[in-house]
Structure formats: C-alpha cells, structure tokens
Amino acid sequence: MTTATTAAVGAVGLGKVFEGTGRQRIEALQDIDLAIAPGEFVSLIGPSGCGKSTLLRLIGDLITPSSGSLVVNGKTPHQARLDRDYGMVFQQATLLEWRSVRRNVELPLELIELSKAERAARAEAMLDLVDLAEFADHQPWQLSGGMQQRVAIARALAFDPALLLMDEPFGALDEMTRERMQQEVLRIWSRTGKTVVFVTHSIPEAVFLSSRVMVMSARPGRISQVIEVGLGARRDDDTREDQRFYEAITEVREALRHRQGAVGGEPVREATS
Amino acid sequence: MATTPRPSTQRLWPRRGSLGGVAAVVGTLVILVVLWEGYKVLGKAAGGLVPFTEMRLRPPPDDRSMPHVWDIVSAMFEPARRRGEPLFTVLGSAALFTLREAFAGFVVGGLGGFGLGVWFVRSRLAERALLPYVVASQTVPILAIAPMVVIWGGRAGLPQWTAVAIIAAYLTFYPVTINTLRGLRSPAATATELMRSYAATDRQRLWKLQVPAALPYIFTALKISAAASVVGAIVGELPTGASDGLGRALLSYSQQFTAAPERLYATVVFCGLAGITFVAAVSLLERRLVNPGARQRIEAEAPGLMVAGAQA
Ligand SMILES: Nc1ncnc2c1ncn2[C@@H]1O[C@H](COP(=O)(O)OP(=O)(O)OP(=O)(O)O)[C@@H](O)[C@H]1O
Ligand SMILES: [Mg+2]
Description:
The structure holds 2 protein chains of 2 kinds. By secondary structure, chain A is α/β, with parallel strands linked by helices. Chain A contains 8 helices and 9 strands. Chain A has helices at 52-59, 77-82, 101-111, 116-129, 145-157, 175-192, 203-209, 243-263, and strands at 9-18, 26-36, 41-45, 67-72, 86-89, 163-167, 195-199, 212-217, 222-228. In chain A, strand 1 (9-18) and strand 2 (26-36) form a beta hairpin. In chain A, helix 3 (101-111) crosses helix 4, helix 3 runs parallel beside helix 5 (145-157) and helix 7 crosses helix 8. Residues 261-268 of chain A have low confidence and may be disordered. Chain B folds into 2 domains: 24-66; 79-311, Orthogonal Bundle (MetI-like fold). Chain B has helices at residues 19-45, 69-77, 87-122, 124-137, 142-155, 160-184, 189-197, 202-237, 246-255, 261-289, 292-301. The model of chain B is unreliable at 1-12 and 304-312 (pLDDT under 50). The chains are: A alpha/beta, B mainly alpha. The interface between A and B is medium-sized, with 30 and 28 residues.
C-alpha cells in the first residue's frame, strides 16, 4: 500500500468548505484520506454534487483546502502546479478558437518558452499519439466533439506532466465515441505511464478504465468505498464482456446504492455499456 | 470558448471583389438617387405642398434646396474658385487632411482605450473609481468640449491639427475601453483555469488568452470609433478656423448655400466617403486579424455589443 508521502497524490483528513454569504456555508468535502500510487489509474464516481470536481480541483491547486493536508509528488499542490506537474482535461475541450489544432497543442509549450522547433516536434508527437496528426492545421471548429477532446488530451500531455487530471472528459460524447475514447486513453496511459485521476458519472467507464474506483457520497462529500477492479492492465473490447467486468460494475453500483439509501443523495446516472 | 458552433458563411461587410456585394452597394446608391429625384418630381407636381393639405413640403422640392444629383456631381468638376482647382480635388485634399487628423486621434484614442480596458480588468479599484467618469465623459457634448480643447491647445502652443486629433481621440477611446474590458473578460472560466494549471503568468494569460479573445470585441469598437473619429475631427475643425479640412469646407459652403447649394451637398458626400473609407480600412484589417469563426459567434451572441458610439 502506498503511503501518503510516497504517493503521487496523498491526502490526509482533507476537507473543503465553501464560505457563502450568510448561512450558505457548504461543506463540499470532509475527511478525505487517499493515496494514489505513481502510474495508477483511479476513478472518482458519486452522485452529482458530492465533490468529485472539488477534489480534483484541490489536487490541481485550482482551489485550496480548508483543512487537512495534500501532497502531490512529495510537494504541495501549489509547487506541483508551478513545476507543471499537471495536465488537465475538462468536460469541454476548451480549445482556443483562434488557434489551429497544432497551435492549441503548442500553447503550454509557448508558456515555458520552448524553441519553435522543439514545440513543433512535441506537438507533432502528441497529435500522433491521439491519431490526429493529419488534422494539425485544421481549425478547432472543423473537428467533431470527440476529436476536439482528443486535441485537449494531446495538449494536456504536451509538457509531459506526471499527473493527468480529467473531469468528465467524455461527458458530452455519444456512447460509441465514448468507448473509443476510453480505449484511446488506456492506450495512452499504458504508453506513457502517467498517474491518472479520472472523474466520471458512468459506472462502466470507471470500471473499464481504472485500477481502483473511489466511490463518493454526498453531504458532506466523502470517499465511502474503494473498489479494486482487478481486470489487469490489458483491456480491450473483450474486457467489456468479461465476467469480472460485470462483477466490478455490480460492486460499484451497490456501493453507490448503499450510500444513497443511507444519505439520501441524488441518483447516479447509470450509463449502460 | 467552446468551439462547437460552426460559423456560417454570412458576412457583415461584403467580401472584397465579390460581385454580389458590389451590386448591393451600387443598387442601394441607385435607389437613393431615384428616391431623391422622385421626391423632387412628385413634390413639384403637388405644387410644393403635402398632398391634400396646405402644408409646405420640408425640405422644399425646388432646385435651390435639393439640387439635382447630376448638378451635385457636375459641381464637383467645376472650379471651386474662379480659375482655381475643381471642387473635387479641393474636397479630396480636405478629406485627406481631416482623415489624417482623425487617424492620429484614432490611434491615440484606440491605444488609450485599450490601455484603460487592460488596466480596469487588472484592477477592480481602478475600474470602480474611473469607469463612471469614462462613461460620464461621453455624455458631455463634443460641441461643448471642442472649443475648449482648441483654446487650451493654442495657449500651449500646439499645432492646430493636434487639438483636432485630441477631439477625435476623445470620441474614439470610449467604445474601445468598454469593448476591451468586455472582451478581456470573455474567456470561459475553464480557459482561465487551464492557463492557471499551466502556471501561466498574468502577462502570459493576458497576451495568450485574454487579448486574442478580446480582438473581435475590440474590432467591433474600432469600426464604431473609426466613424466617430471622423465626426470628431470635422467637429473639432469648426472652432479652429483652420482652412484645410472638411470642417472648414462645410462652414464656407454653407455660407454659400443660397448661391450654390450643390457645393454643400458635395461636401457632405465627401464627409461620408471619408468615414466609409476609414471604416472599410479597419474592416480589412479585422478580416486579416480576427478569426472569422470567433467574429461571427460574438456578433451572433451579442448584437447589443455595439456600444452607442458617436454623438455630437
Ligand atoms: N466555487 C464554489 N462555491 C460554492 N460552492 C461550490 C463551489 N464549487 C462547488 N461548490 C459546491 O460544492 C459541492 C460539490 O461540488 P462539485 O462541483 O465538486 O460536485 P461534483 O461531484 O463534481 O458534481 P457533478 O457530478 O454534478 O459535477 C456542491 O454542493 C457545490 O454546490
Ligand atoms: Mg463535477
């Protein structure tokens, strides 16, 4: 077991309170303990509003914790961000519409003032990785939603971050595209060995992708159960018909049901796969 | 920021060299000429009265108030003074002179407006303290300010054209400030977070994200400002008594109106041409610099974006 200090992401007693005006104080996360090993693929799943995005944003230093401690690669999240340890992918691809696909991928590289030649080479390699090399000179609006999201992934990988943080990256995609993208992400993960923290609403998606699924419950947001998927590293379309795949799905579903019964949270969308 | 909507091919300004666009512009001109001359013919037929009433038509349809279009055109080719240059070269060089003042004011006002917008977006305090005055500045009629600027400029020993340029700048900066501010704030929250996740500096965020996102907004303002700066320059010329610009031409030909009304109309046409030329030049630049997808998305989502520009 990874300890909080050697982990890629380690949290002890982590909490987040949003101070609203007056009595609108929201305790979004309470007492989160977790340890994610380097190279691990972990999914966060839970009812809407349980704090998945909040946890991801804490890890990525987009917001700061109210209590507890959080360590990323042995550093504070702030230091990790300054060291460019993060690659982030959001639900919306968030491509800059005035830049070509290639120049979108080059954006983070411009910020670290890489030479033009290096930028071009890296962007080329990243677009190759997501199978979009031939679309390098297209404009973002000329791409489909799935292609845009692949560009966002290429961009997140551009300066070789140790950690990939993804918040429902395939939420806006149709089921077929989604499955292809999952395959794609797994391929990239096995090729690059990144640590991935992946937020999703879909149980099959969480199970298919992850080595561990962290099930969260709402009000206050907590990690209620951690499920080891145990499908092994190699996963393909056959995995989706594997007995163990169904077992893990059932396990996650029951963990979610159980918590719902207890806390009365909102139902989780059960995407079928 | 999300890039899903595909831009249509519709354009605000006709494409350079597109026959449809040229035909539309020429067609409109023909219609205007027909309306002008038609009003004269019908008005004369009705005896200069509104039909079935005793009220006189305003403007009267006679040739002294509304000269024929061809008379206006031919007046441009007659000497402006006895044995002098033809009117159109006089007006042409007056328009160039005024455009130069307008351009100087436009550049100063545009840069100043952009700078204020950047300052405001970085400092809430500056925005709260100064923005109300920026807005208030535009409620003061330019006609009230122009003479003061000219007088103070004269006392400070500035050449006359700089006073005029300052007045043009005064009309230019406001739309640019408002739209720059709005444009710099336009990037989606996720785009801002993306820059944060890259540990981008404020300066990098400004130049790589906010300014490019603001460009379509800024150009919308610049097109308003281009027209406004010409108005500002013409109005600014009136109290200077300078003899070179369109403002002076307007003054002197309005004094000759009873004798030669075509000249005043010809001057008005040149004022319009000066404004159109300037706006067209800005539009050309816009087409080079602004991503067409972004421009159309913004024009579609916010028609109210066109901040009220020129007054005077
Ligand atoms: N900036 C904020 N200010 C105030 N409250 C916030 C803020 N961000 C999140 N919250 C609150 O924190 C709680 C958790 O929000 P969060 O976005 O993390 O949920 P989530 O699990 O990602 O939900 P979803 O699945 O719908 O995306 C919610 O109750 C939300 O209202
Ligand atoms: Mg969320």
